[in-house]
Design goal:
By secondary structure, this protein is of the alpha+beta class. It has 13 helices and 19 strands. The protein has helices at about 100-110, 145-150, 155-165, 195-205, 210-225, 255-265, 275-280, 285-300, 310-320, 325-330, 335-345, 355-375, 395-415, and strands spanning about 1-10, 15, 20-25, 30-35, 45-50, 50-55, 65, 70, 75, 80-85, 90-95, 110-115, 125-130, 135-145, 175-180, 185-190, 195, 240-245, 250.
Length: about 425
Amino acid sequence: MPKLIVERGTNKGQIFAFDQEAIIGQGPGVPIQIDDKQMAPRHARIYQKKGRFFIEMLEGQTGVSVNGTIVTTRLPVLSGNKVRIGLTWFQFIEEGSGANSAVNILAILQYYEIIEGIDRGGLGNVCKVKELSLDRTVVLRIIPPNIVHDSEAEQKFQEVAQRMASLCHENISMFLDFGFVNKYIYYTMAWVEGVTLDEKIHTLGKIGHQQALKIALQIARGLSHAHTRRILHRDLNPKGIIVTNNENAVISDFGVAKFIMEITGSYPGLIEYYSPEQCENGELDPRSDIYSLGVVLYQMVIGSLPFESEDLDEIKKHHLSTVPKNVSELIPSISKEVSDIIMKCLAKDPEERFPNCEILIELIEKILDPMDEEKESRPSAVSSSQTTDFSQNPLFPWILTSIFSLLFGIALFLF
């Protein structure tokens, strides 16, 4: 029997069990009545169809989300998913589904040895594993049928896999393999040693603008490589960017967001990084990824996102109509060139952003070159004024004469 466990909100700790369907709201008589002023009387519905559970909006005007993805039409709900309705957070538990899932996952894992689970976003399960046949470490992502149960899902993902495999760039994680087991989709990518950019930002608080520009430059180069092959990312965010020990930035999971969008009708990404046109489910082009890169760069430099709110609909509205605080106002010491780049990436109108990554790359390189030259030209720890010049010492002639006399005496003694 499925359950909703309240993890945050007025009803925290309560458990609501239901059968095939449940309506959630604050109105009298609804199966799951919640004391939440942001909820409508019949805010949302969770229901079962063909063995899967879905959530859809009813009368609600505020956000409903699953693992941070806003529900626009409907979304599948998987056991363990975090569901947010109004200002209340639930965990959805589908009891009795574990046995079959375990069997299917074990069928996949017979080829791998799990090293550790990792967090790369809310789409399926992600593990660091050893691929037994080739004795190498890879990243394994398993997408369950609750998310992509579709008669054409396997064919569509095969097309996605071909696109991902066509990308070969030092700033893009290499796609290795994929497969299907009982409607589960899994794929592997090269393991990149490092930390996610999300972890780096949270550890440092914020990143110096020179280092942030170098990371952004590498992300832009990776995006440019994909864009020239007519592949958009659509879900660019710090959790999907790995920064290696030598500060090389590597992007993962190109093309998967479009696949999920085609299957479920909603993007699986984090709305904090959506472009305005993405918030409206509009047509996307490379400038959408450039906007997302602008959000990432803003976050690196400032230490916080342009728009933050517990209400995901509020963030969506900000993306559409609110101009973020100018970087130069928040950090007066930052150069106008750096501030202008970030704010241009974040323009609401795609026509006002950089038309492509190549122009953005060129501008960042022009800013970084003088910075690197300045760093190289800085005096060493012992400056020239502190360096001892023995030739200027008044005793230098006497010392030199003594050395030659000593060497002459040694030579006479020997010969």
